[in-house]
């Protein structure tokens, strides 16, 4: 959203007002999947059997489209983001809808068919558990 090509398919999808926050020094850009050691591009991944909350509770997994279980890496990336959030003293995060990491509002249903379901990604779930207010790129800026 900040203009960096870190999406799984190697494409950037900048959101102008979010890019501006980063350029103005009012926000920092992070990608949990890159912090977890994934490359760009990388295989698409989806949560199977639940949501990010379920992943954190050990009730769901994250797999890529070849069937490889990448849950541990996604959780590690989420934990690195939480450490960064604590280090900089952030109280809010703007995350990308649909992502198995950053999904905020909806995620894909684990079938790799493009079907969406309500829910959050694993990073969103972890940050919420630690009191961080989450916004999606579609709900930022919040209504006054």
The helix fraction, in percent, is 25-40%
Uncertain stretches of 5 or more adjacent residues: none
Identify the strand order in the major beta sheet: 1-2
How do the helices and strands follow one another from N- to C-terminus? HHEHEHEEEHE
Number of distinct beta strands: 6
- The share of residues in extended strands comes to 15-25%
Short key terms for the protein model shown above:
144 residues; alpha+beta; two-stranded antiparallel sheet; globular; DUF523 domain-containing protein; 2-thiour_desulf
Brief sketch in words of this structure:
The chain has 144 residues and is of the alpha+beta class. It contains five helices and six strands, in the order ααβαβαβββαβ. It has a domain of 94 residues.
Question: What's the structural blueprint in terms of helices and strands?
Answer:
Layout: H1 16-23, H2 32-35, E1 45-48, H3 52-56, E2 61-64, H4 71-88, E3 92-95, E4 104-108, E5 116-120, H5 122-129, E6 133-136
Parallel strand pairs: 3-6
Antiparallel strand pairs: 1-2, 4-5
Helix pairs in contact: 4-5
Can you offer a commentary on this structure?
Pfam families: 2-thiour_desulf. InterPro entries: 2-thiour_desulf (IPR007553). This is DUF523 domain-containing protein. With 144 residues, the protein is α+β, with helices and mostly antiparallel strands. The chain has a domain at 43-136. Helix content is 30%, strand content 18%. It is built from 5 helices and 6 strands; from the N terminus they run ααβαβαβββαβ. It has helices spanning 16-23, 32-35, 52-56, 71-88, 122-129; strands at 45-48, 61-64, 92-95, 104-108, 116-120, 133-136. A two-stranded antiparallel ribbon has the order 1-2. It has a two-stranded parallel ribbon with strand order 3-6. A hairpin with a 7-residue loop joins β4 and β5 (116-120). α4 crosses α5 (122-129). It is globular. The mean pLDDT is 94.
């Amino acid at each position: 959203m900040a203009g960096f090509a870190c999406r799984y398919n190697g494409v950037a999808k900048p959101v102008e007002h979010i890019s501006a926050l980063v350029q103005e020094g009012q926000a920092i850009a992070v990608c949990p999947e890159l912090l977890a050691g994934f490359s760009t591009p990388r295989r698409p991944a989806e949560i199977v059997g639940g949501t990010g909350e379920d992943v954190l509770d050990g009730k769901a997994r994250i797999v890529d489209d070849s069937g490889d279980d990448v849950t541990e890496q996604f959780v590690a990336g989420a934990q690195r983001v939480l450490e960064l959030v604590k280090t900089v003293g952030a109280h809010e995060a703007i995350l990308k809808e649909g992502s198995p990491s950053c999904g905020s509002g909806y995620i894909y249903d684990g079938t790799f068919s493009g079907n969406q379901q309500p829910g959050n990604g694993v990073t969103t779930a972890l940050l919420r558990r630690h009191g961080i207010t989450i916004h999606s790129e579609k709900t930022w800026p919040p209504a006054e």
